[in-house]
Amino acid sequence: MRLTDYTDYSLRTLMYLGTHRENLATIQDIADAYGISKSHLMKVVHQLGLAGLVETIRGRSGGLRLGKEPEDINIGDVVRGTEPDFMMVECFSRETNECILSPSCELHDVLRRATNAYLEVLSGVTLADLLRNSGALRRLARVQVYPREKAKAA
User: Which of 7, 16, 21, 24 could form a disulfide with 3 if both were Cys (CB 3.0 to 4.6 A apart)?
Assistant: First the structure.
């Protein structure tokens, strides 16, 4: 399973804000720290704000900060709220499933159990758990990260 960039950026934003709690941060700070698009990050921050996970302060000396304490931010809830779906295979959708193997295939159940286990593990983790070694995260936040190159079609 692969998380969308949207979820990745959401988690990075929360981790950044969790490690920089002494000051307000800006979207530009976070974009620069991780080498990600400011315009994409604006959408992410807006939705995190609507969810109450990020507080946005307007004005000249405004910025961003966590909207909840790190121990109250559940990573499983964040992932569930930011991923569009967990349809690993076509047969997960009753409406669009056209797989001829569905009536006798056991893969559907195996993948559903695997997805549920994946989400269960994430639900057992809070932002506070991710920030336990925040000194290392602060150092990493200063490293310039370059985006992955998109695979070229053959």
Answer: 7
Calculate the alpha carbon distances from 97 to 1, 9, 84, 91, 113 in Å: 19, 31, 18, 5, 19
At 40 the pLDDT is: 92
Residue 80 structure tokens: 């569930």
What whole-number distance in Å separates Cα of residue 97 and Cα of residue 13? Answer: 36
What letter does residue 100 receive in the DSSP assignment? T
Beta carbons of 17 and 25 less than 8 angstroms apart:
yes
In the prediction, which pLDDT does 135 show?
Answer: 61
Residue type, 62: G
CA–CA separation, 56 and 65 (whole Å): 7
Give me the mean pLDDT over the 89-114 stretch.
76
